[in-house]
Each structure stands twice: as structure tokens, then as C-alpha cells.
Amino acid sequence: MRFKAVTTCAALAAALLLPTIAVAPEPARAATSTDADAAMDAFVAAYWDPAKKYFYTNSDHQVHPEHAHGPEDGLYTDFWWEAQLWELVMDAYERTGAPKYRQMIDDVYDGFTAYYPTFANDYNDDIGWWALAGARAYEITGNTRYLSTSTDLFARLWAHKDSTFGGGIWWKNTVHDQKNVATNAPAAMTAVRLYRATGSTVYLDRAKELFAWLADRLEDGGHVYDHLEGSGSGTLVKWDFTYNFGTYIGAATELHEATGDAAYLTQATAAADWATTYLVNGGTINYEGIDDGGGFKALLVRHVAELATEDGQSQYLPFLQHNASQAWNQRRGDGLVGPNWSAPAPSTYLQSLTAAAAVSALQVVPPDGNTGIEPDNGLYQAENGVTTDLGAESSSPGFTGRGYLAGWSTPNQRVTFHVNLARTGAYELDLRYAAAAGEATRGLLINGQLVATDHRFPGTAGWDVWATTLLDGINLDAGHNTIVILIDTAQGNGNWLNLDRMTVTYTGPS
């Protein structure tokens, strides 16, 4: 996996925006087991090539330059994507026991190894995803070829562990430039599964060693960072990605189940608490862009679901059910879900890894059986919004969430909030901000209509002095809405502004 080019989730979202054209979702209703069947059927119909035994990269079965990796110039998915789609097939089989998915487990492996017979890859995280999925395939099927693959690939990974930065496996096996969660947490999970499969305590000891290193160097109070790089003891790079939290939770959960040590459960729940609090907007998991980022949410949901269902942590079920239902409610007519689970899926082609994330959620999350709109919780952190030419900071104290949006000074900079509401009516918007350079003004678009041309943000006494400004009587619809805050120089908008959060409160009929 080669996704290491941005420094904040806000920057990621800005860099990877999809076209804004969208089609209306199906009538809203929360997820059920029937929905899970329909989602998987739609995914297979859109992406599976039974002749090649391989998944297409895109729903239109064309090569597109933004992700032209994988067999046949990127017509089919690349190395780590296909491993994730193999995991999706296993999700569907474990939920249903359907023979067609049992056969597809074998077919995906056969199709992949026809193109990659030796699993040759310079990236250890890519190799690690297949090691992890192979161990799972062995547990499900009992087919020893999957165990052999997993043990061989894990041995490759372990060969690139050393004492630099105190331990851990290098990300790449040629140039040793970083050690990250994406390589080491899945490797720890794989080692636990190999311990279960073989009984060899060597694997369990290696899992413990890898996880101890992760907890010491790449996690703090439940906050899971991305990687270490540089010289000496290493420079910590603090990118927040949902799949890092998911795999860290998965490793802790596997170790708890293997050892019975409650300390691992405490570490898993600390990371789950952090992710479900700070990597959401309105209660729905953040948009992390397309390409690799489009599939990150699947790893978080899968492993939090295991924590909830296998380790007795049922407090996460409402969060999981809300997200599975929210994603499914945003599907388009062909049953595919886009990269932003808070917004209707775009009408353009969709990437398979992106579409798979919601399908996986529907397979692994116990359905709640509710129907209707999935309303948000009313709290929207600005740094988790979808941004254009804006970045996030966290240097001025007093912010809520992970940080705030900063650097607003030029035309067309904006943040878009996707807001899902239970009822049509009048709402109050409460915007928390700092404006130490003096009064700033901004425009406000509601569902594409300009409702405020120069809303005032009065100056504050410092960048660490936060204030609120209100917009009352804002008419919003039941279901999906967009709220955009932007600089419109034609309306005289300007001056510096740090935006912390927005709350949306129902005040009555419109």
C-alpha cells in the first residue's frame, strides 16, 4: 500500500474529492439481514469477473488513471485491494454459510495467484494483508494451502524486523524508511492466528512482541498514530486513519482472546473509544477520500464488531449499527455505496475497495431491524468535514475534537458538512471559532442555496480564545443536507478564521 502522501485527514479529503454529482439513494431504511444479502449481491454483480476469478478495480470495468495499479494495467484490483475483497467474501460466508461464497473463497485465491504466483511485492504491509487473510481462510476452510501461504508470508515479514526504533517490522523490504501500524498490527493478528492453527508458542510470543512495540511507540491513550521514520529513536508521524485504529484493535482483541489477559481488552477499548469519538462527524465515520482511503473504514468496523460481539463490548453496537445503516441508506439505485457514508453515492464509476467497505459493514454488524432515516447526533467537527484548500491544525489550545480548520484567507476555500436529520424544520447552527486577526465574514450555502452572504465572526482576543456565533431559523430537510461555509470574495468575505465545530439543533417547524 502506497498511501502516505498527506499530513492530515482534512488534507486527505481535500486532495481526493470525488465529483459532486450524486444520485438519490434508495428509500431510507436501516440495515437488516436482507439488506446485507442485497449489498453483497450488488457488489458481486458490479465487480466480480468469474472468468478471471478476480475483482475489477472500477464499477465501469475501465482503467482510470487515479488508481491504475493491478493486473492488466489496473483493470483488476491491486495487491492489497484484492486481499481486502477476499476478506469481504469471507465476511459474507461467515454470515451466511452460503456455498457460493465458500466457492468464491477458493476462486479469489486462485485468480490472484494466477497473476501473483510468488506473492512478489516490495511492500510488507501488502504481503501482510495476504498473510492475515490466508490465516483466516485456513480457519474457515481447513485448507492447508492457506495455512502454508500465511506461514510463508509471515516468515517474510519477520525477516524485516529489527531493533531500529526499538523493534517492529519495516514497511518496505528493500528501502527501510519507516515502520508503521499498517505493517505491524496485521502481522500481530496473523501471528495469533498462526498460534491457534499450529499450537506453536513462537507465534504467540511474536504477536506479543509486535503489539508491545505498537503500544509503546505508536499509541498513546487510545490514540493510534501512523508511523515512525527518520533517524535515532524515530520521528512520530501522527496521521489519523481509521484502518490503523481498526488493526490495532484487532491485534489487541486477538491477543485478549488467545491469552485471557484483560490488559489487551483495555487497550482495545481505549482505541475504540478514541476512534468512535474523534474519527466521526455527526456520529458517522469520516470520509477519507477515494483510492486506498475509500476502504479504510472496513478495517475499523470489522474489528470493532469483533470487539463488540466476541469480547462482550456491546456498548459499540449502536455506533456500528448506525454506521452500517447510514451507509446503506446512502446507496444508489444499483445498490453500491460511495466513499462518504454521510452522503448519497456519486453517479460516477465507483472503486471496488470503496464500495466494499459498506458491504463488509453490513456483513459483520448485527442488524438492528430499525427502519427510516438514520439521523446524526448534531455535532460536526470542522476538521472532519470535507474541505477544499483547507488544512487542519491543533496548535492553539481549547479546541474540541482533534483540532480545527485554519488558514482561511483565499477565495473558494470551504468546508462542507453532510448533515442527516430526522425531520424537516427550522434549525439553529452554532459555530465555534477563533478570529484573533479581527472580525471575519463567510458565506453559507444550504443545499446549494446561498442563505447568508457575509455572516459575521466577531474578533476574539487570541487564537486560543474561542467564541460562538449563531444562525437561527435555518430550514433543513429530513434526510440528507449539505451545509457549506466558504469565502466568497464577491460578497466581501475575508480575514483569517479558525473553525472548531458546528452543532445543529432542531428548533421547530419551518
List the helices and strands and how they pair.
Blueprint: H1 9-15, H2 33-47, E1 48-49, E2 54-55, H3 71-74, H4 79-96, H5 99-115, H6 124-141, H7 144-158, E3 178-180, H8 181-198, H9 201-217, E4 219-220, E5 223-224, E6 227-229, E7 235-237, H10 242-259, H11 262-278, E8 280-281, E9 284-285, H12 296-310, H13 317-329, H14 352-364, E10 379-381, E11 386-388, E12 391-393, E13 404-406, E14 414-421, E15 425-434, E16 440-446, E17 449-457, E18 467-476, E19 479-486, E20 498-508
Antiparallel strand pairs: 1-2, 3-6, 4-5, 6-7, 8-9, 10-20, 11-14, 12-13, 14-19, 15-18, 15-20, 16-17, 16-19
Please provide a written account of the structure:
The protein has a 5-stranded antiparallel sheet. It is built from 14 helices and 20 strands. Helix 4 (79-96) runs antiparallel to helix 5 (99-115). The protein is of the alpha+beta class. The model is unreliable at 1-29 (pLDDT under 50). It has 2 domains: 9-364, Glycosyltransferase (Alpha/alpha barrel), CATH 1.50.10; 379-508, Galactose-binding domain-like (Jelly Rolls).
Which descriptors apply to this entry?
510 residues; alpha+beta; 2 domains; Jelly Rolls; disordered N terminus; 14 helices
Number of helices: 14
Through-space gap between termini: 49 Å
The biggest sheet, with number of strands, parallel, antiparallel or mixed sense and barrel status, is:
5 strands, antiparallel
Q: Give the overall silhouette.
A: globular
Task: Please report the first level of CATH classification, the CATH class of the largest domain.
Answer: Mainly Alpha
Sheet-strand content, in percent, reads: 15-25%
Task: Write down the overall mean pLDDT.
Answer: 93
CATH topology of the largest domain: Glycosyltransferase
Low-pLDDT runs: 1-29
| Secondary structural class | alpha+beta
Rg, alpha carbons: 23 Å
Q: How many domains make up the 3D coordinates?
A: 2
Number of strands: 20
- Order of neighbouring strands in the sheet with most strands: 11-14-19-16-17
Tell me what the CATH architecture of the largest domain is: Alpha/alpha barrel
Helix content: 40-55%
